Amino acid sequence: MLAERARRGDEHAYGELVRAYQGIAFRTAFLLTGSADDAEDATQTGFVKAWKALPRFRPGAEFRPWLLRIVANEAHNRRRSRKRREALGLRAAPEMASGGAVPSPEALALEDERRRELLAAVNRLDERDRDVLACRYFLELSEDETATVLGVRRGTVKSRTARALERLRGEVAS
Amino acid sequence: MNELERALVALGRELAVPDAPDLAPRVLEALDRPTRAPRPRLRLALVLAAVLVAALLAALAIPDARSALLRFFHIGAVKIEVVDELPTVAPDPPELDLGSALGRRVSLERARRTAGFDLRELADPPDRVYLGPRGTVWFLYGRPDAVRLLVAQTPKLWIDEPFILKKLAAAGTSVETTSVRGGRAYFLSGEPHEVLLLDEYGLPVHDTLRLARNTLLWQQDGRTLRLEGDFSRDEAVTIAESLR
């Protein structure tokens, strides 16, 4: 197992781990900071800190949420140092996937508009709401993984998600 | 999953997230190899700590023998007298509602059922029991505004030894390395205010001490235990070794 080999000091194994997890780690950091530069910096620093913390990593524990929590902490640190909260927005991809049968141009435009409205509503939420929604739905993490990444209890993830969804409904309706 | 949740998952898959760069070469280059081995000063500290432990074990040889004898004859009550004789301590700060700060008050029986691990207990039951964050079980002897002894045990926090040895000592807390049942323990005095523990992922958790008095900290049977009170190191070790 790569994590166990890395824990014993095998740098080659750790390099393999970095390549295996850098995609989800970078995506996590980007969704929390909204900045590619900050995400890259947070991810790289997170991997270095994780290496140093590996002797304390419990054998048998899940590596992914453990790593993502360290990266998320780094991302939060960079986000806090930013002055302008509005600079953290997410952008929709220029090419939206249509999926299924070929829809009409009007249907595509309507779908695109709905997604942009939903994204704008997500961006209006406060950081706590947006973070839990990003973990649960954009990163598609389980409740347990989200609890680890955000450093809260599983019950807190459930209640925080429910409240964030309720506020998001309000934002979409407004 | 309802319609809004499905829409969020679909949205997440279409967000413009840049491709992750290949960070492996930079990460491997940045690894600070010497930190994997103890640094010279830390190594010196560990050696000194080991020497101190050996010296303390020798010094404590007679009390250990006495404890073993007492255990053999099941004279546990002798140790409880130590708790009864401890002076009471107010919370720090004094206006702190200690009961609320410790967590939810429960019966000892309920704590035993819900802790998720076998509690280590003194012969005399605590006056109050609380379930705190991170699965911590608190035993309070005395009253919340006049505490004789606090006992905390948690299966999810671990001792950060380098922090204990270096940073707390540098911050003015006196740190003595001692022994509880043959395992390493730390006696903090000089008005310690916090300990740095590690959670199950090895990430640091700052924990404020509830009483600005002395603290004994050690790991035993897969958990971290902590005593807080106005006791000497030897009294604390005696109480710690009376926990069953």
Write the layout of secondary structure elements.
The complex is a heterodimer of chains A (174) and B (244).
Chain A: H1 2-7, H2 11-33, H3 36-53, H4 63-81, H5 105-124, H6 127-138, H7 143-150, H8 154-173
Chain B: H1 3-12, H2 24-30, H3 40-59, H4 61-72, H5 77-85, H6 98-102, E1 104-106, H7 108-114, E2 128-131, E3 137-143, E4 146-154, E5 158-159, H8 161-170, E6 174-180, E7 183-189, E8 194-198, E9 204-208, E10 214-220, E11 223-229, H9 233-242
Helix pairs in contact in B: 5-9
Question: What does this protein structure show overall?
Answer:
The complex is a heterodimer of chains A (174) and B (244). Chain A contains 8 helices and no strands. Chain A is mostly helical. Chain A has 2 domains: 1-84, Rna Polymerase Sigma Factor, Chain: A, CATH 1.10.1740.10; 104-174, Winged helix-like DNA-binding domain superfamily/Winged helix DNA-binding domain (Arc Repressor Mutant, subunit A). With 244 residues, chain B is α+β, with helices and mostly antiparallel strands. In chain B, 37% of the residues lie in helices and 26% in strands. Chain B contains 9 helices and 11 strands. Chain B has helices at residues 3-12, 24-30, 40-59, 61-72, 77-85, 98-102, 108-114, 161-170, 233-242; strands at 104-106, 128-131, 137-143, 146-154, 158-159, 174-180, 183-189, 194-198, 204-208, 214-220, 223-229. In chain B, the strands form 2 sheets. In chain B, strands 1-2-3-4-11-10-7-6 form an 8-stranded antiparallel β-sheet. In chain B, strands 5-8-9 form a 3-stranded antiparallel β-sheet. In chain B, strand 3 (137-143) and strand 4 (146-154) form a beta hairpin. Chain B is globular, with a radius of gyration of 22 Å. The termini of chain B are far apart. Classes of the chains: A mainly alpha (174), B alpha+beta (244). Chains A and B meet through helix 2, helix 3, helix 4, helix 5 and helix 6 of A and helix 1 and helix 2 of B.
